[in-house]
Amino acid sequence: MTFQYSYNSPVGKWLGFVAAVWVQAISGNNYTFSNYSDALKSLMALTQLQLNNLSVAKDVGKAFGILAGLASDRLSTPVILLIGSIEGFIGYGVQWLVVSGTIKPLPYWAMCIFLCMGGNSTTWMNTAILVTCIRNFRKNRGPVTGILKGYVGLSTAIFTDICSALFASDPSTFLLLLAVVPFAVCLTAIVFLREIPPSSTPAEEKEEVKYFSVINIIAVIIAVYLLVFDISGTHGKVFSQIFAVILLILLASPLFIPVHLMVKNFIRSNSENLDVEGNENEIAEPLLVKKEVVVVKEENAVEMEKRQPVIGEDHTIFEAMRTLDFWILFVSFLCGVGTGLAVMNNLGQMGLALGYTDVSIFVSLTSIWGFFGRILSGTVSEYFIKKAAMPRPIWNAASQIVMAVGYILMAMAMPGSLYIGSIVVGICYGVRLAVTVPTASELFGLKYYGLIYNVLILNLPLGSFLFSGLLAGLLYDAQATKTAGGGNTCVGAHCYRLVFIVMSIACIVGFSLDILLAIRTKNLYAKIYASRKTKKSTTAVLS
């Protein structure tokens, strides 16, 4: 007897999920621009507006995520991952060649293209991961999204801290890591990640919740570990190497779950004497039932084609865009992620304007606290749906108002305000991402979810252009003085004050829209609550 598994078994499902976690842990490279933006600015003699437009080009790559969304219904998960990994390898690889001095700086338009490719690569990775995992664990969408988006948030800190620990925060080495590591991890995920039928019994669902809790605990340990490393000051070479090794062990530790399941199955197969004929009879009957169910579903599908689906049913992208709820969700999402991206893209210059020489701490703080926002909001919002039918958009509304307060604090530029602002923006941006993803699937269904998700994240390049490229870039340049090399610089609290005030107003608008969406979807979440409660009661009676 040997250890073995099939892709459709629980072992295969959890191996796929662990691989998905690893991909997400390296796919937040879009949020690391501040770590090498100053090197690009100096090397290419850019103004702040030109630099910000480079960051916009990176985020515009996500606009082409629509291609990944269209492909998600036509191509397999491994193919989608392969496309993303190759594109990222080329996009970040060329940036590394430029920053390392291996080749001469490319023309501005060419750099925009390669930054765009790097940004687009993550849409293929995220689409493959999110669509596949939400379908595999559709009864636990909140925790799944929270965990996966949480690791995306941590990925910035993981890259930043490993580079800081081993390579002294060298921008060219950092870009090399961004090119090579995601490529290698995606190749690993291609082997294990497949779409698998979701849990069909309450016992399986309960077991999933238990394992998600284990992964949550591991993720929190990683986040705290990274946070302690960041706030504990400078470290020696040996200490930093030990830190990196332990971090890699922690990232590998979720493998405990599929290994545990494999061992459990091995022990069970040796201790139980199965009757093959009995099993065949047991299997045959459900297959007949499934065929009947498929026929009924096909008949219902023909009837549903004749009418516009209601909220909670499967929508095509065009059907979704004909609803008011879609546009409320879209614009409120823009207010949250657009302003958040403006801060992340400009953290380097914000820190330098306030007199900080090393801004990597702010990048790491935003990443780590963004993780807490993502992972907690996914689990907590799911809990309150199951216990009190609370609409998920309520949590988006809460994040928007807290983010508005954070921007006001940053505008005041009190001592330590950038530390507080980085934490607040990280948490609220994380909540916004983790809550919006399952909300969209609950409002518009899972059938065309890949495309709907990628249309929603058009807000990333749009928000980056409006709040980072235009607002922050133009207002910074208006305050800045020219430098000898042809660029410019600004020092002082006034550099970004008006930017923060405008972004706080945008968050208040987003808050109002989220409250409106929560009111409009109250009945939908009441139905979800009632459906789960009825199913639970029926199961209890039958048992």
TrEMBL record:
What are the transmembrane regions?
79-96, 108-134, 146-168, 174-193, 214-232, 238-263, 326-344, 350-372, 393-412, 418-439, 451-476, 496-519
* Membrane topology reported for the UniProt record: Multi-pass membrane protein
Report the residue ranges that make up the NFD4 C-terminal domain in this protein: 319-525
Taxonomic placement: Eukaryota, Viridiplantae, Streptophyta, Embryophyta, Tracheophyta
Species in which this protein is naturally found? Nicotiana tabacum (Common tobacco)
Please indicate if the UniProt record lists Transmembrane helix as a keyword. yes
Report if keyword Transmembrane is assigned: yes
Its protein name is Protein NUCLEAR FUSION DEFECTIVE 4-like
Q: Which domain of life is it from?
A: Eukaryota
